[in-house]
Structure formats: structure tokens, C-alpha cells
């Protein structure tokens, strides 16, 4: 396993470098960057097809930097300098536990003050260079795809909050026993919580900007699926606890040419420092080999396949809302079945024993199918 990016680099290059970049966080960042590009491509295509439209906004030119801007830059600079200089001076400690270091109160006051002064001064100088005797208001054309960066950022922040919130709700006893560890742990993220909260925040932003909600979510659907698959690569490489149930079954001869880890894996040296054999025993699960189903790997494959389907049919679907509905249905279908070999708390729902993810997956599939039917009929009736 490769808890940190440097572990992977050292594995391939035979080096011994130490970089404070968690593998999962690194892959999530890559996922957002790549998803952003595909989101932009779709928004550009929809604007070219006159499905979404640019708009004008008033922009004030020539004003000096406001007190609020100077203070916000100073605060941002202080936070960077406070942690950066301390990290440089105590690199080994920071590299060993970057997340714990970032969330701690440990820092360098001098570094914070210096960086605060630098960023505040730079903002002041920028304002002075652009300053005019009399500020003017100019019209600026904004294309929808230019807002994708902001929407991606909103999705990232909302997604992290939602993912952590839903994870805490899923296991209340664990939260009560160790609230600090659960809240600030880098692992333990619910993808559906991230999707619901992050997606809701993006929809609110798009509505405030006067964009067509249906066309925005349709444009995001392939990108969301691709980002999910890339994020799961991070889960697999770091071993963040998303592995499946024990798998002691022998590898079928039909797929014996594949690496064994694709069938069953022990996730040695995982980022959580967990021994799967002992972990299974504590949960009352029997395992001879101490290996689990590599569910993150399976989800990556399925996500990439679904992305390929969505990307290939996007130009063939004209009814707004249908693409996102298909995404919801595929998303729910994939997650519903993978949950059967994952370890998650189960709930009794209408006589069925399901995990939180399966309950949400059923809702996604239902809304997806009904949405595809509804939006198709709605578009046909308009025509």
C-alpha cells in the first residue's frame, strides 16, 4: 500500500524521499482537476448549441483595495505562513502525520506574521496599480463554462462536508466514543453525502447565476462519474478502509492470468495501520487468509465503464434532465450491488436488511428511471 504519494514514487524509482502528500488526497485532487476539464467541455458544447447562454455583469474598475480585501489576504497569508514555516523547520514530524499537523495548533507565529504582511502588501500594490481617479463601471460578458471553476470549488468544499457528515451519521456510536478522531479523520467519507451536499450547493449557485439547472447537471454527469472512479483509485492505493468483506475463495481459473490482488488483497501497510485479519476478528468475521474483496478497484472499473457510456451518448440526448437521470440510475445500480461485498452498518427497512448506501442507491435508481421517463415525455410534449 502507498499511504503517501512518496511511497508510490519510492516503489517505482527505488528512492527514499518523503513527501507530505496523502495518496487519497492527491488522487481526489486529480479527480477534481480532470472532472473540471470534462465539465468545461460539456458547458462549451451546450453554449455552442444555444442550450445555455452567456450573460453580462457590472464590474467596478479602478477602485483601491478595500479594508476587507486587505484583511482577508492578511488572514490567508497568516494561515499559510503559520503552517509553512513550522512544517519546513519540523519537516520529519509534519511528513509523518501531515493531517494531524495541519489540524493541530502547532505553527510558527513569525512565519504567519511575515506571510500576512506580504500578501496584504501585494494586494495593496495591485489595487494601486489599477486605481483610477474615478472608479468606473464596465460591462463584462460571462460565459457559463467560466463559472465551472467556481462550481468545482463549491462542489469540493460541499462534498467534503457532506461526505464527512453522512459518515458520522452512519455510525453514531463511533462518533460518540471518539468525536475528535471521527470528525478530523482523513478516512471515513461517504460518497453519497458528498454528492448530495456538494451537488446541492452547486445547484444553488447555478440558480443564483441564472443558469439552466438541468443543463448544468447534465453537463456534470459524465465528469462526476469519472471523478468517482479516479477517487476510488486513491482508496485502493492508500487502503483507506473501503475494502470489502473477507474473501478466502480461490481465484477462478478463468481469470488466473490476472494479478491476485484483483481477486483478494490484504491491504498491507494501509494508511489506517490496520491488520485485516485482526480487524475481521474484532468485527466477528471469519477469515483464513486475512484478505478482502478489493471493492475500490471494482468500483473504479465500473465507474470508468459508466463514464464511457455517458460520454458516448451525451450528444444523442436532447431532452434536458435525461442525462443526469441516467447517471443517477447507473450510480445507484453500481453502488447497490457492490455493497453486498462491503462492510457497512446495516438497517432494517421494510423487511429488508440494507446499508445506508444501498438505501440511497435505491432512491437514486428510482429517481433516475422516473426522471428519464418524465424529462423525455416533457421534452416530447413541448415539441
Automatic annotation (TrEMBL):
Cellular component aspect of the GO annotation: plasma membrane
Keywords, comma-separated and alphabetical: Cell membrane, Lipoprotein, Membrane, Transferase, Transmembrane, Transmembrane helix
InterPro entries, per database record: Lgt
Recorded superkingdom: Bacteria
Plastid recorded as keyword: no
One example GO MF annotation: phosphatidylglycerol-prolipoprotein diacylglyceryl transferase activity
Segments crossing the lipid bilayer: 20-41, 103-124, 145-163, 183-206, 296-313, 319-337, 349-375
Swiss-Prot/TrEMBL GO biological process terms: lipoprotein biosynthetic process
UniProt key word Cell membrane: yes
Family matches, as Pfam families: LGT (PF01790)
Recorded family membership: Belongs to the Lgt family.
Protein name: Prolipoprotein diacylglyceryl transferase
